[in-house]
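Batch job 17 of 40 flagged for manual review because the log was empty.
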Amino acid sequence: MLTLDVGSSSVRTLLFGLEGRQIDGVGSQISYQAQTTQDGGWEIDPIQLTDIAARAISDTCGQMRAKNLTAAAVAVDTFWHTILGVDADGNPTTALLHPFDTRSAKASKRLAQRVDNTAQHKRTGCVIHPSYPPAKLLWLSEARPDAFRRAKRWMSAGEFLFLKFLGNAAASTSMVSATGLWNQNANAYDSEMLGALPVSLEQFADAGDLDAPYKGSCPWPELRDIPWFPALGDGACDNIGSGCTTRDRFALMVGTSGALRAAIETEHMEIPDGLFCYRIDRRRFVLGGALSNGGEVFAWMKRNLRLPDDNDEIEKELSALRPGLHGLTILPLFAGERSTGWRADAQAAITGLTVNTSPIEILHAALASVALRFRNVYEIMQSALGDPRDLVGSGSALLHSPAWMQMMADTLSHSVIRCVEPEATSRGAALLALERIGAIPDIHSAGANYDGAVEPKIENRGLYTEALERQRKLYATLFGTSSKEEQ
């Protein structure tokens, strides 16, 4: 199984065996950089992204030839919530807009005046927010009217790649379900949200064609006449690849950003306030919360504070500190807020600084503050799904910091299993495709690689509960909502 994983900063191709294990020595990774602007823009050149993806695939096909390996299918995942316009000739009329693009913040407020945000969230699983396509579409219609008018189709990154590689802009239920234009329980486009925007249903992927694999010609002889499965959402794939395939196994992922998610197989899903709800496929949902501020909080602190150069020394000093004694309360909203308040205008704040506050104390409080934001998500998920049997931690930022992993366990009062699958997202895409071609019985049979668990320290439970209440009060003071509403 050849996998193509399109992330926010790199494109990666890998090869997995038919049992779902990564094949060593085969694969390619090519980095790229989105273009950012002072007014909140976060754009990717779709043609450049296509070229990079083509190079990565070509590299891996060359390695396959050298090793006399063949692929049974191609599995693809990309990050959710992207949008770009394409003209009648298949050329982009806009840049590919990343979910971190915030230029549609004012447009999202205007859209919320046209549509009942609470009611549409219950249907679509998405709030009206700059990270989602509806606000971006309204903004594009106003800020880029010529480009907007030229667009005959609106599509995600994965659809554009399929259009260029295969001549067919194939889409998945997983990807469309995270647009804010999809009624989750009806498994169809949401007519009210579409009606509030200057677009038509015909400009989006045909609901009847979703998930259908493409099998035919493509630029690579090794990959012709085998099924290419339309791109899935990376978050859904991360759950599957880390073994979190049932509602009682929560996936806690911290990379640059962060997420806490559960996969649920059911016919109908009640969507709680504060959380997102998308689909893995036609019969499975993924429910959870997303933080724009995960590992980037750690990176910001390392860039701006006088911390030790040695990461081992940082870990040693972090582990020696007791929670809360520094007297700091931090809202780690450096990149704004998604779950649970979804405030596009939220910003970071630090209170309690004194002349005696040390850099390591600020770092400790900052990492703990991210764990506290996860607890807001965790408590809503508990209410909706019950107590999880397992909590599985993954992501480079979390796995590389034992002290942070301990904070997560203490804050959530639950053991955290260390998932050491090197490429859980790509593996999840591979497993879902392997299930569809019948190579494995189902995604539950594949499991994942784990390396022990971090147990919560009972003596820290009350300290983090007190810290959570202080953080909620600070949020309410700054953004005018009560701690209950914010939760």
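Reviewer: the log was empty due to a logging misconfiguration, but the result itself is present. Confidence is low (pLDDT under 50) at residues 482-487. Unflagging and moving on to job 18.
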